[in-house]
Design goal:
Elements: H1 2-5, E1 12-14, E2 17-19, H2 31-37, E3 41-45, E4 50-58, H3 64-68, E5 75-80, E6 83-91, H4 103-115
């Protein structure tokens, strides 16, 4: 918690979360690096339409070759150490604000990916 506290003096930090809201400026840290070391899920949204959801999954639970086949503009796969980070991204430039889902409602996505057989096929 001390290490991530250095990234933001305004963030609400607990042993399981790092929550921050910016109205002017932006986060100076690197979300992917934070996922590599500290967190299992990440959500970011901006009023201009960017939506980002990342989940970290132990590499023993997914087959990297299989999951990499699904990479596209909306999905990036990043392997680091004993984990694979899936980054789901959408951009909507319509400037129509839509309230994003709460992170708690997205956590089951990670859970489903860790138990699914498709990602483990050779």
């Amino acid at each position: 918690m001390q290490t991530v506290r250095k990234l933001s003096t305004r963030a609400e930090i607990t042993p399981t979360s790092f929550t921050n809201e910016y109205h002017f400026g932006g986060f100076k840290g690197n979300p992917t690096a934070m996922m590599e070391r500290y967190y299992d899920v990440f959500q970011y949204y901006a009023n201009w339409g960017t939506r980002l959801f990342m989940c970290r999954i132990p590499s023993k639970l997914v087959h990297l070759k299989v999951i990499s086949k699904y990479e596209c503009e909306s999905l990036s796969v990043h392997a680091k150490g004993d984990n694979v980070i899936l980054e789901f991204r959408t951009e909507n430039d319509s400037y129509t604000w839509v309230q994003p889902p709460h992170l708690e409602s997205l956590i089951p996505v990670r859970e489903e990916l860790t138990v699914g057989e498709l990602l483990r096929q050779n």
